[in-house]
Recover the amino acids of this structure.
């Protein structure tokens, strides 16, 4: 440890000592000696999870067998988890349900918006968004005879105005998966509404890390992931939100039996359930849903404001240390310096970003890489400490200065980056 880092560690220690969320870290399993800055991709394992999963498998599945759909509450789990998530994203209790993947839920809400406003021909999708959002947009546009207008975070306001009365819906991700830049949900939603269009937000990088106010912003539809900041585990169920007043007329094309008004009458024709249940399609992935429900208990009683404040402070400290120690080593930064404009991640650029990320992981600091040149670091406020922030920068500097990243093993691209 150099003297310069000593001062940073002293600051971090003071911040950790005052952190009202510090005790939440003890609720997670974090391997010894590892700094985990990838909770924006896959959240950490809650300590309570193995016992809960053992119960779900041995008792509910093993002993209860099919009876557990009724006796262990499996059937209602989608709604229960939806309610847990509603509290985290500023929605009403009856506006969220957990199911399927984010991609599938996007398809449902894009289809719903397209069918609600059939005469309007333009949909706005985000250029440079996480690819699945664009792919689903292309599919929905082809199916419902819409034309895609691409917009980005810089020109979204102009594009909404340009589409005017032809605008059917706008689909955006609130926090950009590469840069971490955050859009103003209230403002953009209001601009879309001013044109008579519907607004869809992807909350993949927001839910669990920001103060999201879906109801207050009058958002029409939203989707998001259960496996990132919500810590539901790999491939956890996603969620979907539909504003209360849009639910009764909502049509979505994936008419599966779980979304039927009375699945167990086995009617030959589809009749949609009322409320959010009509967003369901097929049988719930029960074990994954139970895992998500267990993970979400950690959020009970935790203020999202406290989470957001810590997130801003963590990312602020990381950026300050970047300026002092990392910027001179050939890196750039693509995340806004203004905390109000960023989510809970910070991204750097470097032409050798992949190899540096791998070398960093080998040294016990887990971030990830997004092609072509982005090193991405996520700060999950429930379990990342200020000391982690300092140590990660110290190790990043060592990795670059020592040239450790040049080893051939760090050049080999793995399937998942
Ligand atoms: C903005 C965004 N949307 C969606 C997804 C993932 O969608 P799915 O859960 O369907 O794989 C991601 C994954 O990182 C994402 O960043």
């Amino acid at each position: 440890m150099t003297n310069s880092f000593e001062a940073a560690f002293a600051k971090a220690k003071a911040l950790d000592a005052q952190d009202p969320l510090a005790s939440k870290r003890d609720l997670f399993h974090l391997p010894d000696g590892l700094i985990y800055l990838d909770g924006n991709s896959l959240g950490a394992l809650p300590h309570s999870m193995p016992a809960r999963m053992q119960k779900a498998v041995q008792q509910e599945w093993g002993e209860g067998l099919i009876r557990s759909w009724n006796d262990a509450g499996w059937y209602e789990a989608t709604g229960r988890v939806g309610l847990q998530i509603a509290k985290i994203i500023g929605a009403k209790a009856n506006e969220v349900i957990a199911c399927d993947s984010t991609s599938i839920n996007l398809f449902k809400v894009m289809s719903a918006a397209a069918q609600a406003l059939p005469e309007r021909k333009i949909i706005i999708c985000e250029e440079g968004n996480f690819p699945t959002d664009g792919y689903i947009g292309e599919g929905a546009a082809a199916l419902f005879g819409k034309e895609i207008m691409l917009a980005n975070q810089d020109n979204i306001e102009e594009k909404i105005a340009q589409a005017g009365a032809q605008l059917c819906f706008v689909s955006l991700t609130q926090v950009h998966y590469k840069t971490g830049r955050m859009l103003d949900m209230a403002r953009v939603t209001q601009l879309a509404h001013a044109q008579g269009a519907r607004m869809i937000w992807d909350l993949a990088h927001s839910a669990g890390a920001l103060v999201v106010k879906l109801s207050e912003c009058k958002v029409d539809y939203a989707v998001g992931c259960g496996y990132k900041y919500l810590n539901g585990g790999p491939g956890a169920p996603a969620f979907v939100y539909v504003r209360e007043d849009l639910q009764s007329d909502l049509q979505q094309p994936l008419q599966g039996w779980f979304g039927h008004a009375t699945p167990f009458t086995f009617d030959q024709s589809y009749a949609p359930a009322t409320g959010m249940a009509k967003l369901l399609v097929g049988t719930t992935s029960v074990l994954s849903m139970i895992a998500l429900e267990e993970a979400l208990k950690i959020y009970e009683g935790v203020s999202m404001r406290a989470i957001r404040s810590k997130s801003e402070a963590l990312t602020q400290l990381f950026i300050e240390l970047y300026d002092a120690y990392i910027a001179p080593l050939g890196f750039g930064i693509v995340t806004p310096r203004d905390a109000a404009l960023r989510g809970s991640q910070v991204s750097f650029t470097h032409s050798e970003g992949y190899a540096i990320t791998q070398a960093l992981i080998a040294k016990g600091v887990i971030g990830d890489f997004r092609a072509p040149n982005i090193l991405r670091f996520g700060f999950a406020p429930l379990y990342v400490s200020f000391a982690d922030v300092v140590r990660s920068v110290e190790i990043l500097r060592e990795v670059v200065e020592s040239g450790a990243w040049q080893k051939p093993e760090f050049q080999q691209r793995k399937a998942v980056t």
Remarks:
- The chain has a mean pLDDT of 97.
- Residues 101-103, 130, 132-133, 173, 177, 202, 204, 225, 238 surround pyridoxal-5'-phosphate (CB under 6 Å).
